[in-house]
């Protein structure tokens, strides 16, 4: 089975068809009732809001429901599905394979493009979408329209000093993560929000926790431009040498 564009995983992570990874509630056991589900009444109220897909247990035993809760209706389910053809390793669950896949394929023509556009190519950055790319580039102060290959080639040459102890190497990595490491750790931060800003327990309009986490995407004082694919990229400072001609939009 597969959810959206990724394999079904009983974890709080939902891979979305557009790339972004967001928290989602997958497993929820509650008292249930025989399907079909009534649209009103006390039985209906026992189910969580936005439970767009429900599996019911059969007797004997207590009546339970396994519900997929998705306020924004981004997810979908494919029976027997797997990753879409051509998608690379998951940035969250397959980090080492993801990193290797990027660095060994830098000759691919996608890396001739600006780094902000390359980050949306799911062959190499499976799970990175619009808000994640903005947050990752902002933290590293990388102009979004720098050539992707020039940004990433530096990671091939970077090796920690052999004179450092293991603890020093770990500390240096945590204090100075590179772009590919942030492609893993930044989505992980969103998952660790525990669904806040997305979950029904906060209310449909309550995105306070998620907005508090954002540093760049859609934030006051940031600039924005449309990339070559028509997607808006948010950033601060110089957009980089490959920026499209035209005025910057400021919030």
UniProtKB/TrEMBL annotation:
This is Nei endonuclease viii-like 1 ( coli) isoform. It comes from Lynx pardinus (Iberian lynx). GO terms for molecular function: damaged DNA binding; DNA N-glycosylase activity; DNA-(apurinic or apyrimidinic site) endonuclease activity; zinc ion binding. One of its GO terms (biological process) is base-excision repair. InterPro entries: Endonuclease-VIII_DNA-bd, FPG_N, H2TH_FPG, Ribosomal_uS13-like_H2TH. GO terms for cellular component: nucleus. Keywords: Endonuclease, Hydrolase, Nuclease, Signal. Residues 93-178 form the Formamidopyrimidine-DNA glycosylase H2TH DNA-binding domain. It holds the Pfam family Neil1-DNA_bind. Gene3D superfamilies: 1.10.8.50, MutM-like, N-terminal. Residues 1-19 form the signal peptide. It comes from the Eukaryota. Belongs to the FPG family. SUPFAM superfamilies: Glucocorticoid receptor-like (DNA-binding domain), N-terminal domain of MutM-like DNA repair proteins, S13-like H2TH domain.
